[in-house]
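Schema walk-through. Below, the input block comes first and the output block second. Nothing else is stored per chain. Lengths vary across the set, and this one has 434 residues.
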Amino acid sequence: AYEMVSAQAVNPYHMNGSARQENCNCYTLTPDLTTQSGSVWNVNKISLLNSFDYKFDVFLGCADGSGADGIVFVLQPISISVGSTGGGLGYENVSPSIGVAIDTWQNTADSDPSEDHISIHRNGDIDHSSSNNLAGPVSALANGGNIEDCQVHSFRIIWNAVTKKLSAQVDGVDRVETTIDMVRDVFANDPMVFWGFTASTGGSRNLQRFCTSLNAAFTLPPDQQTCFPVTIPFNDSSASFGDIVKWDWDFGDGTKSNLKIPAPHSYAAPGNYDVKLSIVGNNGCTSDTFKKRIVVGSKPVADFRIDPGIVCDSSPVFFRDQSTVQFGTISDWNWSVRGSPYATSSPGPLMFQATGPGLASLTVRTREGCISEPVTQNFEVKKRPDISFTIGDICAGDPLEVWRRVSNNHRRPLGKPCVYIRRLISDKCICNCG
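--- output ---
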């Protein structure tokens, strides 16, 4: 289940052209129409004397060959500035500025490569052969694939005010970076700039949108076992383009917390608990609810049966697992059959040559780390009977003595030519003789 709240009363973003607000933290830059141009700017200037790490989710559309044109993350000192449509990406001629562009259309006049690509530009100049091309172009996706794939992609912009390095990641992978003193070399020693996104379409089109990243998430330690009784630490791993100002935890048992990292939680009984987390960003937006089922495991009960119930030498035998657990999943089996270990769920077929008594034992473990008590069964390997006799050929119509399970025997005439099979059962072990 997901919950959203409406945008804050005072929207900190200014929209131009075709740009529209979708919800609290998501914006359409261009609808799926031709010759569109849109931009969205945060109305609060930031200082480039301070580092920042902004995380966004971007959507470049669903049309590849016929889709265009792309989006640009822009730093500039003018609050309202929309560039040209089409290949200009809504950014062309915006000056002074720095732009990190994801371009989805090849414009040969700008020395574009054929693939969807990413690059860093200065002063609204999107020509890759220009000295204002500061980094790239390289493929937008690390695997060189199509980014107009109807999927949301993470887009991260990092500025280090100390090292003067500006870098960008797509889907968590470094794509482009440049080292430049933006305050001195671009913005005439004025560190205060607006940030935002621009986008455009020309003769080709795509729906293009961005969201300021606001994704609630949490993790457990990688080696955490959840067998009852247990105390579980929950680690916040939420991501936001800005500061997170509120956390709402629900541990699924009626217990709640509003701490970033809550105290380790103990559950009163084994069970399945749906733990939920939502966060609020410093723009007033509330994230979707992140939910994860935590299984607090109960102790499993080991059990098995031997198939067939009568074990004969040199005959296949299966040890069938019938273990159960109320909460959790059995994942490991520790067998011992006549002193030999097995780790599969149901060992077999096994064949025993030596007759006599045997012992089988089983202990099981769950994915949650719960271990059963061992269960054992005694069994006996019985010897199959040896049979020896002679018989001559007979003709159809001649009588043949046939032994049956009853104590007596009788003579039965043969109806047609055939081969008769003799079968001897002794102590429930069978010998088939032809």
